[in-house]
Amino acid sequence: MTGAFWAGAFCLAATVVNLVSLAVAAIRIRGPRAPLPVGADPPPVSIVRPVCGIETFSEKTLRSGFELDYPDYELIFCVARASDPIVPLVQKLMAAYPAIPSQLIIGDERISENPKLNNCVRGWEAARHDWVILADSNVLMPRDYVQRLRASWRPDTGLVCSTPAGSHPDGFWAEVECAFLNTLQARWQYAGEALGFGFAQGKSMLWRKDILEARGGIRALAAEIAEDAAATKLVRKAGLHVHLVDAPFQQPLGPRTAAEVWYRQLRWARLRRVTFPLFFAPEISSGAVLPMAAGALWAASAGWSVIGTVLAVALFWYGPEFVLARLKGWPLSRRSLVTFVVRDLMILPMWAYAWVAVRIEWRGNAMSVRTKAAEALRATGTAV
Questions:
Q1: FRET label pair with 280: which of 125, 185, 189, 298, CA 20 to 30 Å apart?
Q2: Which regions span the lipid bilayer (predicted)?
Q3: Are strands 73-79 and 45-50 parallel, antiparallel or unpaired?
């Protein structure tokens, strides 16, 4: 069998897998719908939100936590430094909603290289209730936020979480980030969960406190550089499963630059590479660029139109992706096709660089994760 044959086989297989994942996500993820009711005898819930710095929608996302349709919950904000510019905003919101029990904890615990986890430790330990949600500051909570997390809890559940759904993009590069977050990453995470490979996502995580406390508490999440990767492994080791909410919660983006999108996505790629390398390896084929190139090679060998084949492959990749975004109410525009293509072109160098890059950053905090390959490069004087 020739190389052209295998190229054609790869193109076909990758396209079929892509279509199946889109179909699974279309079934699994619910579109816009009415809020969930609270139900009878809802348990009290603690919501721990690490905060750091001001973003475009900080007031909107933090305010959403005070406006939940849930009868009994507390909000615990955690910030590493009293001088952080987010502190006055948190204090203003706490004063504006005196009926909602809330507190601001200043000062972190240095238990790992992960500054977000360090920021959450004291908040977790201060939580008064048996159900605890760890929620990033840039999550826009719908009014039925707690109900939707609780609705996905099953007898075999160890953790319920939500991927972020990019929303409110301002500009081309923010739309590129939406293309990464929504129809690529969220889609694959829901497809994986449907196949029994649920992965935690640190944006919103609902824990039953005793499950984590029985296995070392929140400090056990320092076992990995990414707390959600550690959570995934901890839950699986306990014989339980990670489940997702019925639809991702929004993360408003605002403006983005090309550099911001690149470094944010590279950071996440790097963390996936370090924590789940076998699952990360196939990500190079998650975009349409390699299947289109393989299809072109096969077409040239078979005497078919190369341009026609590439366009056909693109149609089967981007057409259903566009439909999925439309069905789920995710941001789309006239340039969405271009953002899909740009995203897929970025995947290739990002995937390659993720295998050797060791420096990543979260909210101005430097984090270093090294592998044997990276250490070997460093030993030879090669900067990575």
A1: 298
A2: 6-27, 274-298, 304-325, 337-358
A3: parallel
Tell me the HSE value of 234 on the side-chain side, using a 13 A CA sphere.
Answer: 24
The pair of structure tokens assigned to 363 is 């909210």
Q: Looking at per-residue confidence, does 289 or 361 come out higher?
A: 289
Query: Which tokens sit at 31?
Result: 């579109």
Tokens representing 18 are 């892509």
- What is the structure's pLDDT at 364? 56
**In whole angstroms, how large is the CA radius of gyration of the chain?**
22
Using alpha carbons, list the distances in angstroms from residue 90 to 63, 68, 86, 154. 9, 16, 6, 34
pLDDT tops 70 at residue 145: yes
β-bridge pairing 157-162 and 204-208? antiparallel
The per-residue pLDDT for 357 is 75
At 384 the pLDDT is 31
pLDDT tens, position by position, 153-183:
999 999 999 999 999 999 999 999 999 999 9
Report how far residue 259's alpha carbon sits from residue 263's, in angstroms, rounded to the nearest whole number: 6
pLDDT at 251: 97
DSSP string, 115-150: HHHHHHHHHHHH--SSEEEEE-TT-B--TTHHHHHH
Are 75 and 47 spatial neighbours (Cβ–Cβ below 8 Å)? yes
Residue 340 has pLDDT above 60, yes or no: yes
Per-residue pLDDT tens digits for 108-129:
999 998 999 999 999 999 999 9
pLDDT at 79 over 70: yes
Residue 288 confidence (pLDDT) above 60 = yes
Q: Where are the beta strands (DSSP E) in the chain?
A: 45-50, 73-79, 102-106, 131-135, 157-162, 164-170, 204-208, 241-244, 249-255, 359-362, 365-368
C-alpha 349/C-alpha 336 separation (Å) is 21
- Which residue ranges make up each domain of the chain? 3-25+274-373
Angstrom distance (rounded) from CA 296 to CA 11:
9
Closest CA to 285 of 348, 341, 346, 357: 348
Q: Which amino acid belongs to residue 208?
A: R
Q: Could you tell me which residues are beta bridge partners of residue 102?
A: 75
Under DSSP, is residue 320 helix (H, G, I), strand (E, B) or coil?
A: helix
Instruction: Please give the Cα distance from 252 to 29 (Å, whole number).
Output: 19
